[in-house]
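TICKET: design request
STATUS: open
ATTACHED STRUCTURE:
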């Protein structure tokens, strides 16, 4: 693993902040950027990228965006302006017109399907200049090799895996952490494209495309594990009469990490709206990937097994509530994993107001 993983980014972009020297000055025309996937994260990343590039010297062409539902593209174009966003009619148009194509998608299957369409379009219209494909989704590491086989078979095309750390709130403020693996020259271009426009910090994981994907799953396992411990301690605090609010105060005073503050507040107030956070289906996908990774490397992570069970419990409760027409949210946030701990303790999974208040013993 490269020592540059320890490099941090500040507010500006300089030698100490990005683990690469600045790439050569582009030619007379700025590169055409494409962005595919305008979900909870992708929308904010594409918005910030277009705004940043338009507001800095060096020339600018509108970012070309594509999303399965064109309404997201139209919403983004309306928000930032037609001078900053163009809407693509097909994935083939993005692949052939753009020099740097960024993808941010929901699942491995969707990612593979999109890259197959890129491959088909470029087989028919082979590029004569370099193209860089930047895959920012959370996927299983071996998929990177499959994508590379598709992309590297086309002349002048390179793949960089670039998953990002941070919730939508961090994406909104361009405070994501960007992880890069792949071709060195391509990573230089991507690093200075994404930071500080989209993120605040770069980790370089070297040339092996699988490493960034693996590190992303390791990082997500840290977050999932912390949420599970918090869910269990909140539940114990409620059952013992101490109160989850008191446990949350201790987190704020002693362990004020942003994920704990954010998701702890959600758990405390039963705010499990996945449309404003990280949908539980994505959490279950990530936990499934991590469990597969533990099997591949013979490195047990039993806490993630429990996380997986508790998120499945929460999703099952949600589906039951939907059948009865009493669900509060259309999509659950992954902080709803606390429902698993609550139900195991004989409490209501989603409504802490129904929990009995046990008086503390003298």
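STATUS: resolved
RESOLUTION: sequence designed for all positions
ATTACHED SEQUENCE:
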């Amino acid at each position: 693993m490269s020592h540059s993983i320890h490099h941090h980014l500040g507010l500006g972009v300089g030698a100490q902040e990005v683990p690469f020297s600045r790439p050569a000055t582009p030619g007379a025309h700025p590169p055409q950027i494409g962005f595919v996937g305008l979900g909870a994260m992708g929308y904010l990343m594409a918005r910030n990228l277009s705004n940043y590039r338009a507001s800095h010297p060096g020339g600018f062409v509108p970012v070309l965006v594509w999303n399965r539902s064109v309404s997201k593209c139209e919403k983004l174009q309306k928000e930032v302006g037609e001078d900053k966003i163009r809407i693509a009619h097909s994935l083939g148009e993005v692949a052939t017109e753009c020099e740097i194509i960024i993808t941010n998608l929901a699942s491995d299957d969707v990612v593979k399907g999109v890259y197959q369409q890129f491959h088909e379009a470029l087989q028919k219209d082979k590029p004569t200049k370099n193209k860089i494909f930047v895959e920012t989704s959370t996927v299983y590491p071996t998929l990177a090799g499959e994508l590379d086989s598709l992309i590297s078979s086309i002349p002048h095309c390179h793949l960089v895996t670039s998953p990002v750390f941070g919730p939508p709130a961090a994406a909104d403020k361009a405070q994501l952490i960007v992880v890069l693996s792949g071709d060195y020259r391509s990573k230089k271009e991507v690093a200075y494209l994404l930071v500080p426009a989209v993120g605040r910090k770069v980790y370089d994981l070297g040339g092996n495309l699988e490493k960034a994907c693996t590190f992303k799953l390791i990082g997500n396992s840290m977050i999932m594990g912390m949420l599970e411990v918090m869910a269990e301690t909140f539940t114990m605090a409620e059952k013992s009469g101490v109160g989850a609010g008191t446990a949350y105060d201790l987190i704020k005073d002693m362990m004020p990490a942003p994920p704990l503050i954010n998701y702890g507040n959600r758990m405390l107030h039963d705010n499990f709206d996945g449309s404003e956070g990280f949908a539980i289906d994505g959490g279950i996908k990530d936990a499934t990937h991590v469990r597969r990774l533990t099997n591949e490397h013979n490195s047990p992570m039993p806490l993630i097994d429990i996380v997986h069970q508790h998120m499945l419990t929460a999703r099952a409760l949600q589906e039951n509530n939907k059948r009865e027409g009493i669900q509060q949210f259309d999509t659950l946030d992954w902080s709803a994993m606390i429902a698993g701990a609550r139900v195991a303790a004989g409490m209501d999974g989603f409504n802490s107001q129904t929990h009995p208040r046990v008086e503390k013993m003298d």
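CLOSING REMARK: The chain is about 50% helix and 10% strand. Residues 210 and 246 are 42 Å apart (CA to CA).
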